[in-house]
Amino acid sequence: MWIHMTSVFVDDQEKALRFYTDVLEFVKKHDVPMGGADRWLTVVSPEAPDGTELLLEPDGHPAVKPYTTALVDDGIPAAAFAVDDVRAEFERLRELGVHFTQEPLTMGPVTTAVRDDTCGNLIQIVHSE
From first to last of its 129 residues, what are the pLDDT tens digits of the chain? Predict the structure, then answer.
């Protein structure tokens, strides 16, 4: 068993697609109209195009806004992405205008930082020694 797909709720799929591809450098994998404005929209890491997909899921369900708002208000990331060097990625993203709610923090063998994805979520970047 392995993780095939996971999702983050987004308030605007087109804006999310631009952020996750143009800024984070993921690659669009699926973009299927689902009726109305919603799409089955996934991205993947360019290093693993057949790996785990991230679904940029519309936040239209009534339970989503209270849930995502509570996570953001409490500073809790909705997801974590591994990087080779948190500090280098932090600097790269900050130069692109990405807002971080937590600068790089080393806790034993793990370094993390938390950023705003502009679409309603906090996302952690992490590296383990």
Answer: 999 999 999 999 999 999 999 999 999 999 999 988 999 999 999 999 999 999 999 999 999 999 999 999 999 999 999 999 999 999 999 999 999 999 999 999 999 999 999 999 999 999 998
Token pair, residue 96, equals 């692109």
3-state class of 88 per DSSP?
helix
* Contact assessment for residue 65 and residue 10, using Cβ atoms and an 8 Å cutoff: no
Residue written as tokens 């785990």? 52
Strands 39-44 vs 27-33: parallel, antiparallel or unpaired? antiparallel
d(CA 125, CA 123): 7
